[in-house]
Amino acid sequence: MKYYVYGYYGFGNYGDQLILETIISTIAQKDCNAEFFIRSFDQSKKSLTTNNITYLTFEKFLMNPTKRLFNFFKYVRRHLKFLKKCDYLIIGGGTLFIDKGKFSIIFVLLLIFVLYCKFFNKKVIIMGIGIDLISNPINLILMKHIFKFSDFISVREIFAYDYLLNFRLDSNKIILSSDLIFANNKILEMANQSLLPNCFVNTKPSIGINIIDYFGTSNCNDVLRLKFKESIHKLIDDNKANYNFFYISLQEDIGNNDNFMYDELSNKIEYIHLTDETLPQIFNTIDYVITMRYHLALLSFLFRKKCLIINHELKFSDLSLELSIPSIYIHHFMYEDSAKIISYLINSSQCFDNFKLSKLKYKSLKNFLWLDNK
């Protein structure tokens, strides 16, 4: 079978790289002749390089500011050419359905792809996704139809599950699962073993901090962006006598990247980019995590490190409840006393039991139930 996979791939995001690995490896276990066509932003950021994987890097057409309508149709035509070869359209995982109150062309593209598949009698699978609160009315209508014409839907958050039930869809095709990374055997084995030696020698407890340019990209506000930067500096300056800080990045340079503040923090904090190679060493080195990335919070749970989430999207509220990870809303974080923030993290009661992990892995494998009905 041939599979067209649409997701947030090719941005060098480590969490989404792990999602893609999980999708491909799990399908390949059941379909040894599987071929994959991956929608990807950048060819150089590809994570898997086997003969059965083709990366489709047509995003440049949408990025071109001239001849936008012409480039849009060119982009769609290129993708449909490959989609026609495939038996399945897979949309997932991660939070692909998000709009921040603005019209998003992604909803139009996805509906075109879905309708094209239905016309040619191809299966549409939406798996392991999150859904933010969609406030633009056009996006909402488009999203309803995307899900209406899909054959299988699995969502990782209870909010998304309830959201879809309100669309009056066929409830038999909607499944509440968990994030796809919980079915990634490579990561689960790393977390269980974590045998590699420390890459740093620490005399003080260490805190890994991850931040994104939220007020410079997702919710643009120059005043709040400056205030947020000040709060990060204050957090480090006020607590560096008692803690070592490390700057952890999951996505560099492209899009909503994590390293936007590193230049101004480079004299205070050491930088580490998360990869398969650095992952075990990082979690052997740090004791605590403060993060704005969903998958770093999830990895902290797997590696049994106390974590504090800086909450800036709906998905973090669900993750916080499911994994018992404390969170603080980003606006509160900026104005809260830094010592209280650290105390909230250090003194939090976080449970890392194997039963909960087994349950999450079981739920994650539900994302692939459609494979049993091929």
What do you see in this structure?
- The chain has 374 residues and is of the alpha/beta class.
- It has two domains: 2-177, Rossmann fold (3-Layer(aba) Sandwich); 189-352, 3-Layer(aba) Sandwich (Rossmann fold).
- It has helices at 14-30, 60-63, 68-83, 105-119, 137-148, 158-165, 185-193, 222-239, 262-265, 279-285, 294-302, 314-323, 330-335, 338-346, 354-365; strands at residues 2-6, 35-39, 53-56, 88-91, 94-97, 123-131, 152-155, 174-176, 206-209, 244-249, 270-273, 288-291, 306-311, 327-329.
- Strands 1, 2, 3, 4, 5, 6, 7 and 8 form an eight-stranded parallel beta sheet that branches. Strands 11-10-9-12-13-14 form a six-stranded parallel beta sheet.
- The longest helix is centred in the middle third of the chain and has 18 residues, at 222-239.
- The chain is globular and about 65 Å long.
- It starts with a strand and ends in a 9-residue tail after the last helix.
- The relative contact order is 0.12.
